[in-house]
Amino acid sequence: MTHGSKTDIYSRRESQARSYCRAFPVTFTKAQNATMTDSDGRSYTDFLAGCSSLNYGHNDPDMKSALVDHISRDGVTHGLDMHTDAKADFLEAFERLILEPRGMDYKFMFTGPTGTNAVEAAMKLARKTTGRETIIAFTNGFHGMTMGALAATGNAGKRAGAGMSLSGVVRMPFEGAMEGVDSLALIRAMLENPSSGIDAPAAFLIEPVQGEGGLNAASTEFLKGLQALAREHGALVIMDDIQAGIGRTGPFFSFEGMGIQPDLIPLAKSLSGMGLPFAGLLIRPDLDVWKPAEHNGTFRGNNHAFVTARVALEKFWSNDAFQRQTEAKSAFLTERLRAIAAHVPGATLKGRGMMQGVDVGSGDMAAAICAACFEQGLIIETSGAHDEVVKVLAPLTIPQDQFSAGLDILEAAVQAQISQKIAAE
Questions:
Q1: What are 65-96's pLDDT values in tens digits?
Q2: From 13, 36, 176, 408, which residue has the greatest number of CB atoms within 10 Å?
Q3: Residue 127 CB neighbour total at 10 angstroms
Q4: Which residues, 6 or more positions from 16, have their beta carbon under 8 angstroms from its beta carbon?
Q5: Residue 333 host element (H or E)
Q6: Nearest Cα to 274, choosing from 45, 88, 27, 61?
C-alpha cells in the first residue's frame, strides 16, 4: 500500500475536526524522547510534545518496561474505581514524592481521562460546596471542550462549536490583558460594587500560565492577590495546572514557591508520564463532600496510566535533579528566544520555564514560521488569540544538543520570514 493510499483513509473517514495533521501532513510511525520518525524514515525534532502531555519525552524506557511487565502478568487494565495494586502504588508514590515534601494535604479524585473532565469536576464541586453558581474565569483562558469547561474557555472559535448558550461564567481580564488596566484592582472593584451585576462567585478558575491563550504568565503578586480576594469573598481558587504543571515550568506545580494554596487543582496531560489518558483533581480535604458515584466516569480507572505515572514520579521527582535540569534548559531557552525575537521588530517573549515562545505580532507570520520549521524537520505550533505566538513545548528530557539544533531551525525560519517580508515591501 502506498503512502498516498494510506492517508486517503483520513479524508474519507476521519472527522473534519482533525487539526494537527493538517499542519504536519506526514504519517508518523515511531517516536523516542524528542524525536519522531515518519513512514519515509525522516526524523523530526518534537517541540510540541503532545501539547505538553509528553514532558518526559516519547516512550521513556523505564515507563515502557514497567508497562510491558504489567501487561505481561495480566495486570488489571481497567478497574473503574475499584482498588488495584497499580492505583495504590501510584497514590503512595504521589503522597510520598509530591504532596508530603511540599507540605500539601489534598485528596486525589480520579476523574475521566482528559483535562476537561478534571475541570468539570472542579467547577461542579465548587458550586456544590459554596451553593453558588458563578465561576470567574479569565480572558484568553482555555479549560477544555465539554460544556462546563467550554463556558470558561475564552476562544471564540472553540465556543462557537457549542451550538447552545454557555452560562454560569463571568469573564475578567487576565493580568496584563488590557493595556493600562490593573486587572486585580478591576476585579476587586467589580466584586465590591453591589451594583456591578456580578453574583457572588463560587470560584476563580485560572491557569498560572495560559497554554493556548498566548503563554501569558501570571505573576506571584497577581495570583496571591487573587487568592486573597477569593478568601475575602468566600470563593474557592481552582488552579488549572493541566498544561503548565508536571514540571513544565520547572517545579512539579507551576505555582510552587508563590505562597499559593489552591483549593482545587486539575491535573492531566503529562500526569501519566507516557501520554496515556489520565486526569485527576486535587481536592482540599474538607471540600471532598461528594456522595459515592455523585461524579464518576467509566475510564477513570486506567491502570496502565497508573503504572507509568508511578514510574515517572519515582524516576524524576525523588530528588531535585530533574527540576534543576529543567531550570537550566529554561534559562537557555530564554536566552535563545531573546536572540530570535531580536530579528522581529516589536516581538516579545512570552511564558516561563520550558513553556515559552515569541509573539511575532501576526498569526500569518507565526504560521509561516512554523510551516518553514516543519520543512526543516522541526514540529512546532502557535498559540494566542490570533495564533501570533510561536510556542516552544519541547520535552523536558530533550538532549541539549538536539534542543539547540531545534532552536537553530527556528531562528533560521524567523530570519527567512523577515527577509521575505522586507523584500516584499
A1: 999 999 999 999 999 999 999 999 999 999 99
A2: 36
A3: 18
A4: none
A5: helix 321-341
A6: 61
C-alpha grid cell, residue 19: 487539526
pLDDT for position 346:
95
Separation between Cα atoms, residue 333 and residue 353, nearest integer Å? 8
Provide the H-helix boundaries in 168-302.
183-192, 220-232
Model pLDDT for residues 321-343, shown as the tens digit of each residue = 999 999 999 999 999 999 999 99
In percent, the amount of the chain with pLDDT more than 70 equals: 99
> How far, in Å, CA of 110 to CA of 79, rounded?
12
355: CB partners within 8 A, 6+ apart: 52, 209, 211, 215, 243, 244, 248, 249, 392, 393
Nearest to 392 by CA among 343, 353, 418: 353
Mean pLDDT (the chain) is 96
Output Rg (C-alpha) for the chain, integer angstroms: 22
pLDDT for residue 2 = 42
Beta-sheet pairing, 236-239 with 378-379: unpaired
How far is 214 from 206, CA to CA, in rounded Å? Answer: 14
pLDDT at 369 > cutoff 50: yes
Question: DSSP string of 54-99?
Answer: -TT-BT-HHHHHHHHHHHHTT--SB-TT---HHHHHHHHHHIIIII
* Sequence-distant (≥ 6) Cβ neighbours of residue 207 within 8 angstroms: 138, 141, 142, 143, 213, 218, 240, 241, 242, 243, 244
